[in-house]
Each structure stands twice: as C-alpha cells, then as structure tokens.
Write a structure and sequence with these properties.
The chain is of the alpha+beta class. It is about 25% helix and about 20% strand. It has 13 helices and 20 strands. The strands form five sheets. The protein has a seven-stranded mixed β-sheet with strand order 8-9-10-1-11-18-12, with helices on one face. It is globular. The two termini are about 30 Å apart.
Length: about 525
C-alpha cells in the first residue's frame, strides 16, 4: 500500500495537534530528568550488541524540508525530534513528559509564571552554548506569523518571555494553562544564530545531520559534544520509499533493519512466521477522519452529519484497509488519552436510521457533495468505500483527489471544501473542536467553554472530567465522522532491541536502538 504524508500533517497537524494535557514531571518544583542518549526503549529484547553498528531505518515519510515550523512534514518529526533537536521537555514513547533541557522549573501559586532553569554544559552542534535567548527565540519561531505550526494557538496564552540571565527563562502567561509544560515538549530548541533551517540544522541532540540525499536517504551521526549519554549505535540512516511493497522488500533483503510504521497488513504474515523478524503492535494516536465543513450547507445541519456517519460501516472499512488491525473509534479521543471514553455507540452503523435522519433534515432524496481526498493511501481507498456506502441513502459523492500541497491550500488554509478525508496523528487533540476558526468550522460555545475551562484547571482530574464532557458533546453533534484509529505496527529484525514501538506523534527516538 502506498502511503505518503503531507506537509500539513507533519508540521501543522502531526507534530502540532497536542494542545491539551499534562504528563509526569510537570508540576511545580519538578526535578531534573535523565539524558536520553543510550536509554532503554521498549522494542526488542536485551542482548549483546555492537556499538559500532549503523541502524538502517525504512520509512515512507521523507521530510519536505528540515524545518518543523516551515512545512517540514511528518518525516522531519520522525527523523529529528529527540534525535537532532531537543526541547525543554520530552514526550516519552509511553506518553509521559520528562525534563530534558530544562534542569528544573517552578510555577507561581497563581499558575501564571513559569521559571525554567536550563541544564548546564549544553552546546549546539555548531559549538555555541545553549542560552535562555535560544529558548525565547525557539518559542517565538513557533508563534511567528510565517510559522506553519498549529501550535500557535497553544502559545497564544504566553504574555511575555524574559531572560534574566543565560541560564534562566521566565514565561508569564495571560491565563492559567495546565498543559503548558506538555506543549513545550513539542518545541524544538534551535540556536538563535542558525540560518537556513529548511536545509540544515543546529540542535542539541545526540545526533547531528550527516547527509540528506533527497528521494533516497537521510543519515544521522553521533554528536561528540553531546551533553548526555552517547547513542547506543554508530549512527542512523533513514531510507525512504514510495510504496509499502518496496519498503517490505528492503526489510526482507536486509537493506533496512526496521520499518517505522508498517502500512501493508497483507504482508505481515511473511514476518510473523519468520524468526528473523519481530512484529510489534504498538499504541497509535492516529485517527482517520471524515471532516465536514460545518460552516456550509448541508453539513451545517447536525442531522445531515449524523446521517452520513450512520450510513458508513466503519468496521467494514477498517477491516478492508487493515485486515483485523486498528480500532473503531467514536470520537477524536484515542484510548491513550486521559479523557477517553468509548463513544462508538453514539455513531452506530444503521442505514435505515440514516435515511430517516436525512428525511427529517429535508433531504428525503439525498444530496450531492464533493469529497476532497489526499492522493496517498489509505485516503483514496477510504473515499471509494464511503462513496459506495452513501449511495445506499441517495447521497452522491464526487471524489476529488488532490495533492498534499493542494490539500493544505484548499482545505486547511482557504476552507474551500464541503468534506474531506484526513489523518490526525497526535494525542490530546480533541481541543481543536474548541476553536471555531479551525479548518472544519465546528462552533459550539458550550464546547469552547469546556475546553477553555479544562485548560485553566488546577488539577489533571478536573481537566479530564471537563474534556470528557466536551468530547461527548462533540460526538453527539457529529462534528466529524471518526472512521477508525490506525494500528501502530513496527517490524524489525530480531537482532535489534531498544527501539520505540508506539510512535506517538510521529517521533522515532533512535538513540537507544542496539544491533546484535
């Protein structure tokens, strides 16, 4: 199955749709975290390994460029996040937030002032020392007018950033933000003197960029001046493929050691029955969404949206695409989120109910609309399936296949669409329904209030309860049709250990991978 990612999903959605939530190590006076290089990761089993081995990684996600605020795509997140660039905090493969470049932090009693003490002895790959000015610059790059990062709205709460000395950053907020530290785990700290980051890099991570051969490979080499523990390998080479078949063949012929995300379930048997490979079924946060433009007719009518959802057999679609892998999901919230509830009962497959709802909405004979569909799998396959399902209730679908760049301009930027298919990668992204200006145009003041109150909560328990309420209301309104939750399948050589298996938010930490 061919599957390529988009600049939007990588830079605006995949790396950025995590605007709520909280993890470990985020409270007042939290202590320091450990350096990531060489740390244990969940994949594989412990065994003797060769520290001089290079890890060959197979992926379908080549970067568009190397700037995660400039449309770099899911590929640059996969290759660079945690490997080349680091944040004040990091998100682990288990979804926890840990201190990284921030040695410690203090939060004022009113929750409006965060004081971060930076780790000593950290240098960028260029040799420049890490200072508070670099942190200030990096946050401002995310919120800059030209930035393509959807994290802009997450950091709209920032009132000011002060740098009283080289090792201290003071951030003052306009309002309490329980997920502020969590959101900071997505901000790469970049040297404020760095230039042309679309083609180069200057991070603080355990690897530096070796060479990027567009359309082929991207290599990472250990950074000798790294402040933490050195990587458990000599380096990493990402090999890029345009089809799942070619990717699997590379694994079978030992051209690569590991596949970051398997996209051809039909090919798994050849690995499951072979002792030379290990198939890991991790936890995904990627949702396939049929998004309606809730601003325009007929999708401004909740009954129409509910009818479309009721006419689509999500389980059948999931099985046809993933062959038994993946999970039906009745909302934007995956099971790994703290505010998850199984809401699939609110979105039943019921063709007769769909017909009744259409008639009640004033469309007894159905209607027609255009479905803008990205040109990479599984979107065209899903679009064809949806077209057939909706034909049963008299709804005529015209499928308009567009490129990733066209999707970004037409759908996300200009809102020029009736309905679209898109995958949303990140966890904790239900809060986007609290933003009426987001591309799908869902506008419910009660949901916006709940999302805002959740963000201002002083406990994670209160935050979770409010977001559960918001999520249920969003599902009841059929703001979109959440078709299914992707599986996260990592296939690796049995000689490998220490690799990540969950792929949260597209990151792939390679520093702990060992090859026997």
């Amino acid at each position: 199955m061919k599957r390529k990612t988009t600049p939007l999903i990588g830079a605006v959605i995949a790396a950025a749709l995590a605007l709520a939530g909280c993890g470990s190590g985020t409270g007042p006076d939290s202590g320091s975290g450990s350096a990531p290089g060489g740390s244990a990761a969940p994949g594989g089993s412990a065994a003797a390994f060769d520290p001089a081995a290079t890890i060959e990684v197979g992926s379908l996600y080549e970067p568009q460029n190397l700037d995660n605020t400039g449309g770099g795509g899911q590929g640059v997140t996969e290759a660079f996040n945690g490997n080349v660039y680091e944040g004040l905090f990091r998100l682990t493969d288990e979804g926890k937030v840990e201190n990284l470049l921030a040695e410690s932090q203090k939060v004022s009693a009113d929750g409006l002032t965060y004081t971060f003490t930076l780790r000593d002895g950290v240098t960028f790959h260029s040799g420049d020392p890490l200072t508070s000015a670099d942190v200030k610059h990096s946050i401002e790059q995310v919120t800059a007018k030209k930035s393509q990062s959807a994290r802009k709205s997450a950091f709209a709460v920032v009132k000011s950033i002060e740098t009283p000395d080289d090792g201290t950053v003071v951030v003052k907020l306009k309002d309490r933000s329980i997920s502020f530290v969590y959101n900071l785990s997505y901000v790469w700290i970049v040297n404020d003197a760095a230039k042309d980051l679309a083609k180069s890099e200057d991070g603080t991570g355990p690897y530096r960029l070796g060479e990027w051969k567009r359309g082929s490979t991207l290599s990472l080499t250990p950074f000798d001046g790294y402040w933490g523990t050195a990587p458990a390998n000599k380096g990493v080479v990402f090999h890029y493929f345009t089809s799942a078949t070619a990717l699997n063949n590379a694994l079978l012929t030992d051209a690569v050691d590991i596949v970051t995300s398997e996209q051809s379930p039909d090919a798994l048997e050849q690995f499951k029955n072979n002792p030379n490979y290990k198939v890991n079924d991790g936890r995904s946060t990627t949702k396939l969404l049929l998004a309606f433009n809730d601003r325009v007719k007929p999708f401004d009518d909740k009954l129409v949206r509910k009818a479309v959802g009721a006419a689509i057999d999500d389980r059948k679609l999931l099985d046809s695409v993933w062959g038994g892998y993946g999970t039906p999901i009745g909302s934007m919230v995956p099971p790994t989120d703290p505010w998850y509830e199984d809401l699939t009962s609110l979105d039943p497959y019921d063709v007769e109910l769909a017909r009744k709802q259409l008639a009640e909405a004033g469309f007894p004979n159905g209607f027609a609309f255009t479905l803008d569909t990205p040109n990479y799998d599984p979107h065209p396959t899903a679009a064809t399936f949806i077209k057939g399902e909706l034909a049963k209730i008299g709804v005529n679908v015209t499928i308009n296949v567009i490129t990733a760049d066209e999707w970004y301009t037409k759908v996300f930027k200009n809102r020029d669409f009736a309905a679209t298919l898109q995958e949303h990668v990140n966890d904790r992204d239900v809060v986007w329904y609290g933003n009426p200006d987001f591309y799908w145009g869902y506008d419910n003041p009660e949901v916006t209030r709940l999302v805002d109150e959740a963000e201002r909560s002083d406990t994670v328990e209160k935050q979770a309860e409010l977001l559960k309420q918001a999520n249920r209301k969003i599902a009841e309104d059929a703001a979109g049709d959440w078709l299914y939750l992707y599986p996260q399948i990592v296939v690796a050589s049995s000689s490998l250990s220490g690799y990540p298996v969950n792929g949260l938010n597209s990151q792939f930490h390679a520093y702990g991978i060992k090859k026997g």
